[in-house]
Amino acid sequence: MTSPFSDEKPSSAARRIRMTVNGVAVEAVAEPRTTLVDFLRGDLGLGGTHVGCEHGVCGACTILLEGRTVRACLMLAVQADGARLTTIEGLGRDGVLHPIQQAFVDEHGLQCGFCTPGFLLSVHELLEQNPDPSDEEIRDFLGGHLCRCTGYKTILRSVRLAARRLRETKAAVAAHAEASS
Amino acid sequence: MKPPPFAYAAPRSVADATALLRASDGDAKLLAGGQSLLPLLAMRLARPSLLVDLGRIADLDYVREDDGMIAIGAMTTKTAVERSALIRTRQPLLHDATRLIGHPQIRNRGTVGGSMAQADPAAEYPAVAVALGATLRLAGERGERSVDAAAFFPSPFTTALEPSEILTEIRVPMRAAGSGWSVLEIARRHGDFALAGAVVMLGIESGRIASARIVLFGVAPVPVRVSAGEAALLGESPGRPAFEHAAACARDAVSEPLSDPHASAAYRCHLAGVLVGRGLAEAAARAEGSS
Question: The complex's ipTM?
């Protein structure tokens, strides 16, 4: 793996850190000043988490930390030592898009795609907490994400579609479990 | 937009953290949730030699009832406050104020103690702490002490904390029966820092205002208590004439209003009056509905 930081010699302040990223245990040396998003991209080679504003305004670098959304530019890598993370690379499985991703494709919830990984992980947390959110609740939860392409309307539609499909899947699974018990 | 180099320590106890601060000659910074400090580092407005991360100290993250008060550990996240049934039912003002802070992704990391210690003039928590008469518990090399919120925010981004002290707990009283509350703000966008905000608490007994508290944020370098407006409300019957007078007091209460390209001093003072008027009406309705 080529890292933009790998040719830098670690300083005496560098620390060995371990974490679980998308189910995989990783271990690396990180400078204290390395943000989590730079660590994910530069040291772990996970480029799906995008870096936008680098000061917590745009939401592009949003990931899941212990299942909760956080901005990876507002955390140091050393703070995530021992944590369990999910990035956009961990959302789909075996090459199949997650239903939230598929809904964004079907409803044109993205154009350039720069902001999309962050949106998807926030939608993931929202729908875990609230499987049937109102438009107001969706807007409130996604208010910390900027998208310069879509005008947000198709994103709203994508979230509604994802929510409906996830509810239908859950209901079908429950009905199947009942029928076979 | 990359932080400058610094040393990093993640102590396991408050005592170890204060020892690190003492040894650093005032050049260290405490890292709580990092939602204000990380941007300051990225923009290189802060260049500490050492960051002391409080995130590994286990016993600073709690919300509990203690001696008739609600005790909140300094490292409790805003999401935890938002989800606390104790806070929602016994001090709903704090619950409502928390929902105005940033976005869910920020509240998942940002802490109660971090907001208090950051003392941003536009932040909700310092004003809420002043309005509630909260007490802040500080730990330092000479032991612990408590400071009233009214004395904790002397100037913007500055607190009563000594260089080697750490804020460990915030204690807030529970809502009194028959009292109503309101917290309102105007921001340019949902989740932005407030251009102006107002925290209002009203106690109503036998149809008369028996207690009142009005605190503004976002309009001045520190939270502003509208004492003249509070005094004028006492004994009045809750309603428009009394509320409009208190709103006028709020407009006049700000001696050094903030002014920037987003909002002039005059506009901020105007907003303060509007929000106090609305907040009093909302608080009165809640007081009358709850007793």
Answer: 0.94
